[in-house]
Amino acid sequence: MAIRNPQAPSAVVMVRPHHFCPNPQTQADNSFQSPLPQNSETLHALAYRQASDVAAKLTDCGIQVHIFEDETRDTPDSVFPNNWFSTHSGGHVAIYPMYALNRRTEKRADVIDMLKRCYRVQDVVDYSGLEADDIFLEGTGAMVLDHIDRVAYAVQSNRTNPLALERFCSHFNYEPMLFEAFDNNAKAVYHTNVLMCIGTDFVMIGLDMIDNQKRRDEIIQRFVESGREVITLSHQQIARFCGNAIELQGKNGRILALSSTAYAALEPEQRLILEKSVTLLPLEVSVIESAGGSVRCMLAGIHLSAR
């Protein structure tokens, strides 16, 4: 029987892009995004290969990967499915309101159908109707969830509306922890999952980006009380996606899936702390990172019981 861990899922959903490119509709508020040619066949092929390699390496570690193809040119960010849906213990699924118009069409019935077919799904709560009121909450990009202590950490931004956060937390039994965070240019961090990663025994977080000292101390206190070791990431490490990692349960123990970019930016002492509880799995996704997200954004964790 597969080991169950509330924080570290043993199965994920991926979407493999055939026509990947950085999304022009998200450039304005995503400072992690790089301007690249929008219609480069080489770019498309490299992104396809990188997504395929991630799926293969996760599978080798014993992670169940459900991979879906995106052959359209209309959804440039489809490689980041964790933004439009999430799954939760007890058989619950959420579908989220998306900020960019072209991201709203990433939502796929075949993914939800697969979840219902392969896992025990009791209900699907769809918040998409909030898009008509310009209220957005982009899934586990907007929120980093502590599945053990039931806290939803969220940076307020265009992609994270406090009303939607409160509604999600009420439905799914999380306590909201909303705060502001800014990069070196005083620009709001667009997604919480580039700022922080919560594992079973550790947290990686860019504390210096949280200006409000009182709120920062409250967040640190929460993690200390949970028994987790807090690893502080610098602005430069956040920019290299060190916070955009995800803990998964493999066949031989827990792994931390992160990009090769992030792995190279970690200090040796930080790696040693992490390796006390996880095996580090660097994954080459440099082309996909040009869209402003990294490994964690590519993996929608499945926290459901298999049928």
Layout of strands and helices, then pairs:
Blueprint: E1 11-17, H1 41-60, E2 64-70, E3 85-88, E4 92-95, H2 109-118, E5 123-126, H3 139-142, E6 143-146, E7 151-155, H4 162-172, E8 175-179, E9 196-198, E10 202-205, H5 213-225, E11 229-232, H6 235-239, E12 246-250, E13 253-259, H7 260-265, H8 268-274, E14 279-283, H9 286-289, H10 295-298, E15 300-301
Parallel strand pairs: 1-2, 4-5, 7-8, 10-11, 13-14
Antiparallel strand pairs: 1-15, 3-4, 6-7, 9-10, 12-13
What can be said about this structure in brief?
The protein has 307 residues and is an alpha/beta fold.
Structure description:
It contains 10 helices and 15 strands. The chain is an alpha/beta fold and 307 residues long. It has a single domain, classed as L-arginine/glycine Amidinotransferase, Chain A (5-stranded Propeller), CATH 3.75.10.10. The chain has a 3-stranded mixed beta sheet with strand order 2-1-15. It has a 3-stranded mixed beta sheet with strand order 3-4-5, with no helix packed on it. The longest helix is centred in the N-terminal third of the chain and has 20 residues. The mean pLDDT is 95.
